[in-house]
Amino acid sequence: MNQYTILIVEDxxxxxxxxxxxxxxxxxxxxxxxxxVEAFKSIKQYKPDCLLLDYCLEDGTAFDICKRVRxxxxxxxxxxxxxxxxxxxxxxxYTVCQADFFVEKDKTCKEVIVIVESLLxxxxxxxxxxxxxxxxxxxxxxxxxxxxxxxxxxxxxxxLFFSIIFKxxxxxxxxxxxxxxxxxxxxxxxxxxxxxSLVCRLRQKLGPRLAxxxxxxxxxxxxxxxxxxx
Length: 230
Prior knowledge:
Layout: E1 5-9, H1 13-25, E2 29-33, H2 36-46, E3 50-54, E4 56-57, E5 60-61, H3 62-70, E6 80-84, H4 89-95, E7 101-104, H5 109-127, E8 130-132, E9 135-138, E10 143-146, E11 150-153, H6 156-168, H7 175-182, H8 192-206, H9 208-211, E12 214-217, E13 221-224
Parallel strand pairs: 1-2, 1-3, 3-6, 6-7
Antiparallel strand pairs: 4-5, 8-9, 9-10, 10-11, 12-13
Helix pairs in contact: 6-8
């Protein structure tokens, strides 16, 4: 099940209910509104992973929303998918609205979901973003997003160390591998103390709730332990 959040902007009540139901079944966290004014507020409030917009709305068009999004540095990279019953809106959706995808309304809800999921996966691969339970790694900003609320900024060495053990979890990562990746040295160089110093500073930034997940075992190396969901 994915961990994406989507904001659906649709003023047709029946179509909105269908989309909400379908995306929730697919594992999305779903927020929905019916007009441009509500959309602006919800984008800021929920910080969705994707916007699904009906082209024609009761108080404007998808362009009104897209213009605000694409000119705001904090949210301009949010992927946008536009829905319309009019195929002639396809060109303007890409050129004027700067949407990432245009979908005609004759598509089934399942087809729309597949398109959105494919788009989000591709964008994550391009950006190198990695998700797992309550943690999101953002290499572009050397940061960790916790519960989609708290952002922890790290140094390049701290982020590289964390990402290595995070991606390898639940396996241990030997210190010689960490030395090679972080310090660009071969295994003959003993950097145990440097690693421990790095981890100490990293734990301070992570705070107690996350720091305890980083463990070390002699002769095995380092590991990130993700608690079982309750």
